[in-house]
Amino acid sequence: MTSATPPKLQIRGVGKRFDNVEALTPVSLDVQANEFVCIVGASGCGKSTLFNIVSGLLAPSEGSVLLDGKEIVNRPGQVGYMLQKDLLLPWRTALQNIVLGPALRGTLTQADYDRAAALATRYGLGSFLHAYPHALSGGMRQRVALMRTLTAGNDTLLLDEPFGALDYQTRVAMQSWLLDVWREMQRTIVFVTHDVDESIFLADRVVIMTPRPGRIHSVLPIDLPRPRMPAVLSDPAFMAAKRTIMEVLHPAPETTGSEAAAHV
Amino acid sequence: MSDIGFKGIFQNALLAVLSVALIFITWKLFVVISGYPPYIIAPPEVAIAHIWNNWAEMAPLLRATLYETVVGYVLGSAFGFAIAVLMAQFRAVQRVVYPGLIISQSIPIVAIAAPLALLFGFGMAPKLIVIGLIVFFPVAINVLDGLSSVDRDVLNLARVLGASPWRIFTKVKLPACLGPLFTGLKIGASYAVTGAVIGEWTASSTKGLGTYLLTSKASLNTAAVYGDTLLLTAIGVGSFVFMLVLGIIVTPWQWSATAPKWLQPKIRPTGKED
């Protein structure tokens, strides 16, 4: 990933105002192909607004978003998108939810089913292909949701706190799993979280956003070797990065109580 | 969305049979204890015997009323579904039509039957309209509810996955309203036969179980009144059970952990794709 290659995703001066309230001051960010970028920030820092704009669901008040050099503002369907809520359709089985992208575009073929089944089997859902979502655990549901995002055919994925609703053990397992998938499937990932540990564990670079108005404060490269194991959480380099981020998110004297507690 | 499975469905069916038995027992007990003479009240076995002995006469009546009920029910439900879809897709339609729906349900059915007969004569049309008027409302309201309560995030997800508005409708909104649709269909199914009887009473020259009820009552044929009512009830219960079973078949995710075999997509072993 040298800086000589053109960026996969370019966010150029993207800002958003709702009525006269500035939700997002113009931000710029380049993401390289196959890069894993995490965005951390407290609630109200504009990360979800930014994601809604990049995904094409929300029109920005200014700025542009380029994917492979092409404008994708207001054009849903160009990047994969996954939320904290798994949003699985209860009447579709795990397999049918994984192939939802092709199904909704009307391009569903037998090959899609075959590939989806192979994918699900490789990542531990082999015996749940025909299970309805209500019969799956929270971790399994999020895995199905991620496979649905992978199968949709976009090589750039926006993941908006996908593991935020999972318990700690499952979340840690899902993070390792996501890194495996990312390494094997060669995707570009932008991952929003408010869990600082999670952002450092996953990312090549951590983008720190601050609220009121939402903006990018700084971008921190994470130079931890890969593949990363959970033991990296106690690495001095990890601790240093965490300290840097925490100092931005929670400046010493005026730590805002409730929000700070939520991030520990 | 509880996972009750086949066993649960069987148990529910068994309880339903017990409940029917309980109604017959209560009916019989009431006749015996009250001591009313046979021309005031008929016990179940007399009502059933009347149907048995007069089957040749009653079968065509049953067929006629069943036919009206089914046709009126299907038309009414289809209309209710269509109007709910239009209302959900177009806000303007909803604002204009919704008050009309409420008004349509506030007009006493018996009152509207007479002008309908004057307008359309004494053929099928006014009867079907009366049944449809009763049936379409629960279907329309439930489907509208189902369509408008689809999660916004799910709709956004569908857009991000590149779905056209038509596919969002057929693949996301329609399946999402299947549950509410069947709720409405079940309510409508038990009401439809009432509509058929009212239709026959107020706007009919042809014979059916409704007209038979009138003539039996006029001639103080109590056994016939009870036998007739039993058949009418059977139509109502039968329609309800039919929709219940259909609903269970159509929404397997509501009672099963895995998709039934016939709904599972076939999977070829990998390596042969593309």
Count the DSSP helices of chain B.
Answer: 11
- Spatial order of the strands in the main sheet of chain A? 6-7-8-3-9-10
The major beta sheet of chain B can be summarized as:
none
Report the sheet with the most strands of chain A, covering strand number, pairing sense and barrel closure.
6 strands, mixed
CATH C-level class of the domain at 73-254 in chain B:
Mainly Alpha
Tell me which protein chains meet in the greatest interface and how many residues each side has. A-B, 37 and 39 residues
| End-to-end Cα distance of chain A | 32 Å
CATH architecture of the largest domain in chain A: 3-Layer(aba) Sandwich
Number of DSSP E strands of chain A: 10
Unreliable runs of chain A, pLDDT <50, ≥5 residues?
Answer: 260-264
Helix content of chain B: over 70%
Distance from first to last alpha carbon of chain B: 38 Å
* SSE pattern of chain B: HHHHHHHHHHH
The averaged pLDDT of chain B comes out at: 88
User: Which percent bin holds the helix content of chain A?
Assistant: 25-40%
- Approximately what portion of the residues of chain A adopt beta-strand conformation? 15-25%
CATH homolog superfamily of the domain at 73-254 in chain B: MetI-like
Q: What's the oligomerization state? A: heterodimer
Strand content of chain B: under 5%
Structure description:
The complex is a heterodimer of chains A (264) and B (274). Chain A is α/β, with parallel strands linked by helices and 264 residues long. Chain A has two domains: 9-79 and 155-263, Rossmann fold (3-Layer(aba) Sandwich); 85-153. Chain A is 35% helix and 23% strand. Chain A contains nine helices and ten strands. Chain A has helices spanning 47-54, 94-98, 100-105, 110-122, 138-151, 168-185, 196-202, 236-249, 257-263; strands at residues 9-18, 21-31, 36-40, 62-67, 70-71, 80-82, 156-160, 188-193, 205-210, 215-221. In chain A, a hairpin with a 2-residue loop joins strand 1 and strand 2. In chain A, helix 7 (196-202) packs across helix 8 (236-249). Chain A starts with 8 loop residues before the first strand and ends with a helix. Mean pLDDT of chain A is 87; it is low at 260-264. By secondary structure, chain B is mainly alpha-helical. Chain B has a domain at 73-254: MetI-like fold. Chain B is 78% helix and 0% strand. In chain B, helix 3 packs antiparallel against helix 4 (91-106), helix 9 (178-202) crosses helix 10 and helix 10 (209-218) packs antiparallel against helix 11 (222-250). Chain B is globular and about 70 Å long. Classes of the chains: A alpha/beta (264), B mainly alpha (274). Chains A and B meet through helix 3 and helix 4 of A and helix 7 and helix 8 of B.
